[in-house]
Every structure is written in C-alpha cells, then in structure tokens.
Amino acid sequence: MTEKEATYRFLLPTPSGYEFQGRFTIYSTELDGVHTKIDGTLYLGNPKQQKEDACVTISVHFPESAAAYKKKWGRNPLFDPSVASLVLTKHDTACSETKPLLSGKGTVEMITAGMSLIKQLCEFVTSIDLKDMSTRKCDNGASISLSYFYITIHKQTWYEKQFEASLRPESNMVAYREAVDTLLSMPLEPFASFSVHFLRGCNEQVKKAIKQAYDASNTMEEFFHTLYETHGIPMGCILVSDWLEKMMKAAKMQPYLEQEWYIDIKTIPSWRFSNESMTLRIIKGNRSTVKKGIWGGKRKTRRH
Question: Which residue pairs from 175-178 have beta carbons closer than 8 angstroms and sit at least 24 positions apart in sequence?
Fold first, then answer.
C-alpha cells in the first residue's frame, strides 16, 4: 500500500481586498495498483496559526475514491464524489491576513472564496453539502442558533439567504417552507400561556420587554418584527436567547435544520486567483517535491 500527500499552500485574494492563508491537502492511497483512495481538504484562514485552526474547512472525495471503496467492500460508498462538504465556518477578525474580516459580508466573501477555489480545482463537484450548526453570540455572551434567529428576522436561514442553500429532495424543501410559514403566521396564544410554555426562568425585566411586543402583535411574525424594531437586533438576541430554541423545537423546525443542506456549485462565482501565489509541496516517504503554481511550473526535489 502506497500513501502520498500533496499540499498546496497559498494566499487567496478576494475582490474586497481580503487575503486568506490557504492550504489544500490531498491524501492518496493506492489500494490494489488499480484503484486509489483520494481525499482532499481545504483549510482557509488561520487566525491562531495552529495547524488545523481554520476559519473555513471544505472536504472532497475524489471520484477514484468511490471506485476504490466499491472494490474493497463490494458495495457503493455512502459518499457521493460529486458532492463536497462544507465542514466548518466561523468568523474571526484575524481570519484575513490583510485587514480585519468584517462579520456578515466579510464572512460571506471568505466562504465564497473557498467554494470558488474548490469549484475550479475539482470540476467534478456539482454541489456542496453542509450541516447548519452555525451560532450567533449575543452581546451578553449567550450563544443561540443562527438558523433559528435568522428565520425570525428573514423567514429563512443564513445559508439560504447568502448561498441559496436548499434541501433534497424538493419535497423536503417544500415541507420546510410550509413549516416556516405556519410558524410565523401562527395566531398568538394568550401571553400567560406563552410565558408558561417558554419563558420559565426568564427574569421579570425580560418578560416585561417581551410582553410589550407580544401584546402589540397578532402573529408570531408580527411579534418578532415588533420585538426587534422596538429593542434593536442586538438586544433582541439577548431577549430571545433563553427560549427561542425551545419554541423552534416545539414548532418541529429542528428536523429540517438538522438535515444536510446543499449549495449548487453553479451559484458560486468563478473568481480569478493568481496561480503564481500558489506553491505545491508533495510529500512521499522522506522526499518532498515543490512545484510553483497549481497548474504548472518547475519542480524541485529534495530530501528532508
């Protein structure tokens, strides 16, 4: 069995002037002289300069890996080589090398840069899947589900709005949209009942602020809109942090958000990246080969 590792290292620029330290590592294992298991992982942004401390991580199974799996186990693999996986995304001002990364648009640009590179390096990839485990930290330090919070503001998740993420099959997406519409159009029960169901443990000041918006509304959508308009999004995050997840689970939203979501690679722009800024280092045994530029260039081999 022969194992081989190739790592591309580069700075990935974006249209707004961000540059992200990047590393795309490909691991290949020859199983039988015919089939090879090949996996790739893109690490983008490295604020703490530790090996695996990335801001965006995307994993890829190469098509040859599917053949290797079938050859070894006698059955088709559970993974689909045409689908890459967005494993991790997080915001840190130090994700960018050139200037502080802004939350929101900066994060979108960073994720887009990673997916755009995968789109160009791995032309067999047709979509990128993800488990939306993203969170938002409120100003008081409380952490809440970004998906739940975003739905109450925009009637869709962050990945839906920013990257047109969807569920498969289409029937799942239809059911999810119906669930969101049902939740937000729901007539409000008396505040006393709502308080018993969801606000236990909240202090009286929080209950008072929530009741003010609740009593002025007829539906859940009106309630959230009034709450955020009255107190602002940052304070609204604090006001819902203790009970929003409980309410979303009661509305049976959790199963939809825990499924795998997909981003169609066609929706991702193909940004132009400088080939000269990318260096490939291939490691095999005690030898390493360095090549300037992903798509060509001179090679230099040395022992290490």
Answer: 175/256, 176/256
- Helix (H), strand (E) at residue 146: helix 146-154
* Same domain assignment for residues 215 and 281: no
Regions of the chain with pLDDT less than 50: 276, 294-304
Domain of 49? 1-131+260-304
Same domain assignment for residues 227 and 272: no
Per residue in 102-115, pLDDT tens?
989 999 999 999 99
DSSP letters of 285-304?
Answer: TTEEEEEESTT---EEEEE-
Q: Using the structure block, give the residue that is written with the tokens 């890996």.
A: 65
Is residue 152 located within the same domain as residue 199? yes
Alpha-carbon span 78 to 84, nearest angstrom: 13
Are 14 and 120 members of one domain? yes
162 token code pair: 């920013």
| Among the listed residues 85, 90, 86, 68, the one whose alpha carbon sits nearest the alpha carbon of residue 77 | 68
Q: Which two tokens stand for residue 271?
A: 């940004």
**136-145, pLDDT tens digit by residue?**
989 999 999 9
Token pair listed for 303: 């022992």
Contact yes or no for 277/295 (Cβ under 8 A): no
Q: Do β-strands 299-303 and 135-137 pair in parallel, antiparallel, or remain unpaired?
A: unpaired
User: In the numeric block, which tokens belong to residue 197?
Assistant: 């169901």
The last residue of one of the domains, among 234, 254, 274, is 254
The three-state secondary structure class of 90 is coil
| pLDDT at 10 (0 to 100) | 84
